[in-house]
Give the backbone structure.
Amino acid sequence: MNKIPVCSLGDLSTGNVQVVEVEGQSILVVQIDEEYFAIESLCSHADISLESGEIDESDRTIECPKHGSLFSLETGEALTLPAIKPVKKFSVSLDGENVVIEL
């Protein structure tokens, strides 16, 4: 796996989305409390950006702003229709003040 620093801890705040471009892929990075998540930024149903989607911190989900599908930030799984396919999920770790994902 290729570990790539994508942003600093200072770029994130709990419940907000940071979009990063890594090797031609648009990826959402989300912090909830002391946990960090990274998923593909496009809804698997309609190729709509999830960037402005609502984050549910307690359920660890993001809602597609176009059709309302929920995706797990933990697994990328599509939890509600109309989406049925997951979005890609990336492993996240910290290296000092850097947030690192694995491609």
Q: What stands out?
A: The longest strand covers residues 25-32. Residues 19 and 28 are 5 Å apart (CA to CA). The chain has a mean pLDDT of 96. The beta strands are 3-8, 17-22, 25-32, 35-40, 55-56, 61-63, 70-72, 89-90, 92-95, 98-102.
